[in-house]
């Protein structure tokens, strides 16, 4: 339950999550007790740090169905996506074509645009009103000179999951490298990169109840072996792909966080799915003109995107600021008041796109919390409509 004497109810877990107490407990010794440099393997302190990194690498690999040598630790999921996209495209001379979707995170879209500036040709696949990519459209976009396809596993704004296994299979059959941003999917369940035909994948710590400032990149080592051109130079850590002293406490936290998801993700996902279904039903039955955004079934747990006719989301957020923290758009765009590119891709520049907001409960959210928030949301929306009339 939310402490009435503390902060508003936190309902923005798709933006970031609190660090799980068990994750924090795993991390703490590596700040003050086991503080060696993991690259200093010639002495005991460095060996202890390296052992912790090795354990975390195994935990991440297990969560992905990958080999330990296929995991590269980075400073964020954004950095992982940049290394993957820039590195894979530049490592394939003679292949100057790229494919992505219209609903990708800027961490994918911006390096794609950079490659465009370098002379690559980019095809952006449209999505339907559920925010879903058609596998056939991806297949038709592939060319003999296609170097890379990048499609996210699940969207951070509307929760829609993409058919990444089918997309990956199409890419693999054509000899095209397939990258996927897994930031929103991995907090809920493990994944088998072999079965999903994923060759490169980006991972986030802070979306999965781990710390901020750490991510990881999966790089397929065989069938096919993915080659990446180096984009970061320095001491040669992480197979030379991401030089820099390893942040051992954060890496330990990432490994611990994903191990917890592996044990508890299925039951927690079922709880969140039921919680969100009740919330949507409550709001929709109490207010006219409520649209549920994103795919109704193929979506991550803990994501509700709604548009309420004649209710501006920023006004709604301001009215409920003391009650709960939620989002009117992706947290990565909060410095700009503009309609989300994702929602425009789904609905065009329409009232439904402009009126969308996101509620994302998490591990600490109870059914009572969300029911109380639903009642206050309904009341606030009714008041805003009266003022606008």
Automatic annotation (TrEMBL):
Pfam families: Aminotran_5. The keyword Hydrolase does not apply. InterPro entries: Aminotrans_V_dom (IPR000192), Aminotrans_V_PyrdxlP_BS (IPR020578), Cysteine_dSase (IPR016454), PyrdxlP-dep_Trfase (IPR015424), PyrdxlP-dep_Trfase_major (IPR015421), PyrdxlP-dep_Trfase_small (IPR015422). It is an enzyme of class 2 (transferase). SUPFAM superfamilies: PLP-dependent transferases. Its cofactor is pyridoxal 5'-phosphate. It catalyses: (sulfur carrier)-H + L-cysteine = (sulfur carrier)-SH + L-alanine. Keywords: Iron, Iron-sulfur, Metal-binding, Pyridoxal phosphate, Transferase. Residues 10-333 form the Aminotransferase class V domain. The keyword Transferase applies. GO terms for molecular function: cysteine desulfurase activity; iron-sulfur cluster binding; metal ion binding. Its EC number is 2.8.1.7. Belongs to the class-V pyridoxal-phosphate-dependent aminotransferase family. NifS/IscS subfamily. PANTHER family: CYSTEINE DESULFURASE, CYSTEINE DESULFURYLASE FAMILY MEMBER. Catalyzes the removal of elemental sulfur atoms from cysteine to produce alanine. Seems to participate in the biosynthesis of the nitrogenase metalloclusters by providing the inorganic sulfur required for the Fe-S core formation. This is Cysteine desulfurase. It comes from Methylobrevis albus.
């Amino acid at each position: 339950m939310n402490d009435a004497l503390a902060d508003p109810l936190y309902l923005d877990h798709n933006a970031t999550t609190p660090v799980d107490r068990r994750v924090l407990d795993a991390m703490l010794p590596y700040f003050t007790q086991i503080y060696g440099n993991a690259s200093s393997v010639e002495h005991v302190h460095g060996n202890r740090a390296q052992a912790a990194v090795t354990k975390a690498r195994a935990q991440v690999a297990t969560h992905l169905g990958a080999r330990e040598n296929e995991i590269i630790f980075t400073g964020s999921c954004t950095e992982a996506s940049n290394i993957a996209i820039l590195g894979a495209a530049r490592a394939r001379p003679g292949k100057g074509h790229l494919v992505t979707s219209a609903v990708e995170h800027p961490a994918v879209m911006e390096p794609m645009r950079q490659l465009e500036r370098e002379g690559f040709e980019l095809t952006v696949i449209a999505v339907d009103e559920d925010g879903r990519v058609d596998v056939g459209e991806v297949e038709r976009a592939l060319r003999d000179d296609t170097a890379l396809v990048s499609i996210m596993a699940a969207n951070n704004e509307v929760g829609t999951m993409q058919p990444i296994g089918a997309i990956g299979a199409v890419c693999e059959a054509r000899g095209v490298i397939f990258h996927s941003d897994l930031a929103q999917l991995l907090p809920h369940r493990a994944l088998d990169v072999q079965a999903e035909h994923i060759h490169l994948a980006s991972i986030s710590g802070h979306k999965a109840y781990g710390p901020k400032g750490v991510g990881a990149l999966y790089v397929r080592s065989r069938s096919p072996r993915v080659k990446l051109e180096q984009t970061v130079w320095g001491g040669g850590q992480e197979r030379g792909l991401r030089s820099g002293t390893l942040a051992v406490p954060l890496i330990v936290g990432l490994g611990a966080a994903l191990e917890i998801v592996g044990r508890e993700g299925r039951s927690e996902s079922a709880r969140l799915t039921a919680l969100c279904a009740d919330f949507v039903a409550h709001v929709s039955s109490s207010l006219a003109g409520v649209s549920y955004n994103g795919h109704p079934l193929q979506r991550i747990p803990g994501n509700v995107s709604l548009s309420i006719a004649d209710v501006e989301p920023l006004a709604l957020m301001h009215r409920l600021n003391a009650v709960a923290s939620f989002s009117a758009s992706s947290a990565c765009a909060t410095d700009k008041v503009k309609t989300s590119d994702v929602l425009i891709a789904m609905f065009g520049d329409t009232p439904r796109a402009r009126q969308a907001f996101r509620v994302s409960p998490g591990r600490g959210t109870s059914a009572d919390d969300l029911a109380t928030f639903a009642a206050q949301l309904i009341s606030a929306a009714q008041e805003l409509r009266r003022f606008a009339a």
